[in-house]
Amino acid sequence: MASSNAAAGVDNTFRKKFDAEEFKERAREREKKVSDRSKSRSKGPPVQRAPLKHRDYHVDLESRLGKTQVVTPVAPLSQQAGYFCRVCECVVKDSANYLDHINGKKHQRALGMSMRVERSSLEQVQERFEVLKKRKTPGTFSEQDLDERIRKQQEEEEELKRRRREKKKEKKKGKVIEEEPEMDPEVAEMMGFGGFGSSKKS
């Protein structure tokens, strides 16, 4: 009987008790927060952004190339190392990443453009062709000019190869002449160049 009293006296209050009402209330609050967020986002009309346009300025990547600069941690962003974007007010460390940034979604949105391109009509394409035809100078070359230039270049390469072969032949002939110089035998004997061909004395 003492054992049954000991079991009845065990304190299990440290265990978490499941309260269904409390969890239902938490779920209602969470749903209310989510719906409030979605309502606050959709209050205004959707932003209409302009389609992508051609860049009307030159991207300057080479102006600071090869120059040294002292960089301090307290310097403003525009004077820190790397490329500074005035639109987004950020610094990008190298030219490749800078180009990625100015062509990217974040920068284009800051300029008020979407990442969609406006579709051109037939008239716009025809006008563009006309502008390009007018801009074309008469000194430019056609396909025939290109073929002629390729042919001339091949002829020049063949001529260069022919000259190289002739030079090699001349060098070989020159070496043969140098190896066997023509000398009077009497003069050679007086100078002591008696007979290089053999070691026998006659």
TrEMBL record:
Basic residues: compositionally biased ranges: 162-174
UniProt-annotated stretches for the region Disordered: 21-55, 140-202
One GO term describing the cellular component: spliceosomal complex
InterPro entries, A to Z: Matrin/U1-like-C_Znf_C2H2, Snu23, Znf_C2H2_sf, Znf_C2H2_type
Gene Ontology biological process terms, A to Z: mRNA splicing, via spliceosome
SMART domains membership: ZnF_U1
Keywords on record: Metal-binding, Nucleus, Zinc, Zinc-finger
Superkingdom classification of source: Eukaryota
Comp. bias regions, Gly residues: 192-202
Single GO MF annotation: nucleic acid binding
Compositionally biased residues, Basic and acidic residues: 21-39
Ranges for domain U1-type: 80-114
Membrane in keyword set: no
Protein name: U1-type domain-containing protein
Organism of origin: Capsella rubella
